[in-house]
Amino acid sequence: MTSRTAIAEAVRERWYDVLDVGRQPRIVRACLRFAVCWGGLSAGGVTFAAMVSLTAGLTVLVSLARAFLGDRPELMHLFIENVNSVVPGIIDDGTNGGLIPAYLLIRHPGLSLTTLISGIIVFAAAATMMTGLRRTVRQMFGLGGAPLRFVRGKALDMVGFLALSVTILVSSSLVSGVTFLSERVLDWLGLGQTLTGALLGVGAVLLAGVLDAVLVALIFRFTALVRVPWKDLRQGMILGALGLGVLRLGGTSLIGLSDNPLLASAAAIGTILVWMNLAVRWLLFVAAWTANPPAAHVPVHPDTVHADETPNYVTLSAPHTLDWPHHQVTGALIPAPDPRFHRNTNGNGTGKGTGQGTGTPPAESSTSAGRDSED
């Protein structure tokens, strides 16, 4: 028994050495933040909300495009191609067997009560996705316990949806316009067809990468209201653009899932779900990386969170639990100091003094908690 206990203790100590808070590199801290804040589960929720509101968002996008490009069928076709490059196979252009026929997304002109009500429903459904995206991104930055006021949050969701829609519309138009002009210029210069195609491909990828980087910055700064230092934001923009670019270029591979007999008639929906889930997961991981979080004191020892007591959470039904260190907004327990994580600190801000387990709640007072409500 003694030898078994010694082996278990040695394994435990080795695990703590691996996760020593004084030696956690940024990639480990980002992964732990993503895991502890349920990044994968949150991505699934945002993906589901996005699927529910996808038709609403596309209706707005296609209607805006028709308003500006309706008299230019070739530009409208290019727009649909670019939307399909962002979300592979979502719009049926008559040749790709997409999920939604384009004509179903075009709203008829004229104002009526039905049009007004349907328009409100469209925006409300689309804002649902923005709400989930905003909350999960803020969670990755450690702001889940600092909710925005309800009205302000919903207003941000609506504005954020419109801004993202316009951004996608403008980016699609820019890619189409630059491609069109580049073809004419390269033909005028008399370059070979192979070289022309290569230059156009590289240019389109670079332009799409820049627009993806801007999109990531807009989501962090204006949708989630996170004030990120430029040094960290720059890294997040680059990582976000790289990941989203790889997903876009790999969209054709994901479309290959449509031939999988296991998916049958739901192949298109399954393909889009996989693509969107991967995109949201990457965005949330990029948010965790951009946050550059302090070291996580994991695993949490049961004794530091009253795990063996009843109740083992803060509740008015047991007044003595109100004296336990807890978050003033969420009510989440704050682990007591654990000396296991105070070893081998190297002064890089990831050791003792990171704020974890100090017994002092974050800087939310009871007054501010009363003013704010979860949106």
UniProtKB/TrEMBL annotation:
<feature type="transmembrane region" description="Helical">
    <location>
        <begin position="198"/>
        <end position="224"/>
    </location>
</feature>
<feature type="transmembrane region" description="Helical">
    <location>
        <begin position="36"/>
        <end position="69"/>
    </location>
</feature>
<keyword id="KW-0472">Membrane</keyword>
<dbReference type="GO" id="GO:0005886">
    <property type="term" value="C:plasma membrane"/>
</dbReference>
<feature type="compositionally biased region" description="Gly residues">
    <location>
        <begin position="348"/>
        <end position="358"/>
    </location>
</feature>
<feature type="compositionally biased region" description="Polar residues">
    <location>
        <begin position="363"/>
        <end position="375"/>
    </location>
</feature>
<protein>
    <submittedName>
        <fullName>Uncharacterized protein</fullName>
    </submittedName>
</protein>
<feature type="transmembrane region" description="Helical">
    <location>
        <begin position="111"/>
        <end position="134"/>
    </location>
</feature>
<keyword id="KW-0812">Transmembrane</keyword>
<dbReference type="Pfam" id="PF03631">
    <property type="entry name" value="Virul_fac_BrkB"/>
</dbReference>
<feature type="transmembrane region" description="Helical">
    <location>
        <begin position="236"/>
        <end position="256"/>
    </location>
</feature>
<keyword id="KW-1003">Cell membrane</keyword>
<dbReference type="InterPro" id="IPR017039">
    <property type="entry name" value="Virul_fac_BrkB"/>
</dbReference>
<feature type="transmembrane region" description="Helical">
    <location>
        <begin position="155"/>
        <end position="178"/>
    </location>
</feature>
<keyword id="KW-1133">Transmembrane helix</keyword>
<feature type="region of interest" description="Disordered">
    <location>
        <begin position="335"/>
        <end position="375"/>
    </location>
</feature>
<feature type="transmembrane region" description="Helical">
    <location>
        <begin position="262"/>
        <end position="284"/>
    </location>
</feature>
